[in-house]
C-alpha cells in the first residue's frame, strides 16, 4: 500500500526537497503541497492523505492551528510537525493540537521516511533531542482534581500500561517491566486508546500527564 503525504511549508524549496525524498520511495508519494495552514487543511479534506508534514511557522494559518483544525474535523490523517526551532512550547502546542509526532527539519532523509511510516501506523513520534525534556517539563504539574469518566473506565493493568506509556516506554519495554508478552501489552495499549478516545500513543502521553499518572522529574 502506498502512503499518501501532503507537504505543508511556506518555502517552495523545502517542499521540493521533501517531495524528492518522499517520491523516491516506492511505498510513499506526495499527494499535494500547501504553502500555508489554510491550504493544508483544505488539501487534507480534499485529498485524504495518510500523513501531513506540517511546518509550524506559516502565513494565514500557522501549523499548530492547522493541525488543530484537521484533528477536530475527524480526518484520519496523522500530522507530523516539523520545525527548525527546538523549542518546548512548540512541542507542547503541537501535541495539544493533536499532532502525532514532532521532528526537527535537520532530520536525515532516511529518518524522515521512517518517521512518515511510523506516524502513518499510529505510533507516537517525537524527536529524540526533545523527548526527555518534554516529558520532564510537560503540560501541568497538578493533576485534575477528579479523573474523567474515561480514565475511571481503565482497569488496574490498563492504568499501569498508561503510566508506562507516559514514561515513553515502548511495548517491548512495557512488556519487560510488567512481565507480560508484547502481544498482551499491545492489546492493553489498544484498549487504553479506545477507552480514552485518543488517536495514538502521543495523545495517551498527554492524558497520562494531565491526570497525574506521570509526574515531571524535579531537577
From TrEMBL:
PANTHER family for the chain: TRANSCRIPTIONAL REGULATORY PROTEIN NARL-RELATED, TWO-COMPONENT RESPONSE REGULATOR
What the entry lists under InterPro entries is as follows:
CheY-like_superfamily (IPR011006), NreC/VraR/RcsB-like_REC (IPR058245), Sig_transdc_resp-reg_C-effctor (IPR016032), Sig_transdc_resp-reg_receiver (IPR001789), Tscrpt_reg_LuxR_C (IPR000792), WalR-like (IPR039420)
Task: Please report a single Pfam family linked to this protein.
Answer: GerE
Protein name as catalogued: Response regulator transcription factor
Chain segments annotated as transmembrane: none
Q: Which residues carry this modification: 4-aspartylphosphate?
A: 55
The superkingdom listed in its UniProt entry is Bacteria
Q: Does the keyword Transcription regulation apply?
A: yes
Q: Which residues form the Response regulatory domain?
A: 4-120
Question: Nucleus: present as a keyword of the record?
Answer: no
Keywords associated with the record: DNA-binding, Phosphoprotein, Transcription, Transcription regulation
HTH luxR-type domain residues are 147-212
